[in-house]
Inverse folding.
């Protein structure tokens, strides 16, 4: 459980090596008071990274952002408390951005993500931005981050297995 104050996890540097991502999280969001960082590759102030938020601000939503040298983002309404399986998918070079909630597509965007042939080599921060700000307040039942845009069959397996422990749908 992430208390929304000071809890976070950090991986070592991940050499992402592609411009694609699929990130799926099983979540119980407990508050919409302030932006909560579920997972972020590097610090979002940098380019060529992605982030999954619960919420994006005090908006009662889930959000996914991807950036090359420019940022694109999507949100889907779900007021706290809320239990969901949330998936974000992106591909920098084709300006692809997809947000899913509970195995259903919630939005797509073709907004320019700028240039960039791969996400940066950085730690993956879980539960807080770089361990210093934007704490997530809730329960993380599972997290999968893959350096590819998964096809429908693969994505279905990831979302269903995540939901097994989450109970979002």
């Amino acid at each position: 459980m992430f208390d929304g104050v000071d809890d976070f996890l950090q991986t070592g540097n991940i050499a992402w090596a592609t411009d694609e991502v699929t990130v799926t999280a099983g979540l119980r969001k407990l508050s919409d008071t302030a932006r909560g960082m579920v997972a972020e590759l590097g610090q979002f102030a940098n380019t060529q990274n992605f982030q999954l938020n619960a919420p994006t601000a005090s908006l009662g939503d889930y959000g996914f952002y991807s950036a090359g040298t420019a940022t694109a983002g999507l949100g889907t309404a779900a007021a706290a408390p809320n239990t969901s399986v949330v998936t974000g998918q992106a591909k920098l070079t084709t300006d692809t951005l997809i947000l899913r909630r509970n195995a259903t597509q919630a939005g797509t965007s073709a907004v320019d993500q700028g240039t960039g042939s791969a996400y940066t080599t950085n730690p993956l921060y879980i539960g807080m931005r770089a361990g210093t700000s934007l704490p997530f307040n809730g329960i993380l039942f599972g997290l999968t981050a893959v350096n590819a845009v998964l096809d429908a069959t693969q994505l279905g397996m990831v979302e269903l297995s995540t939901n097994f422990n989450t109970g979002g749908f």
About this structure: The chain has one domain: 2-166. The mean pLDDT is 94. The longest helix spans residues 152-166.
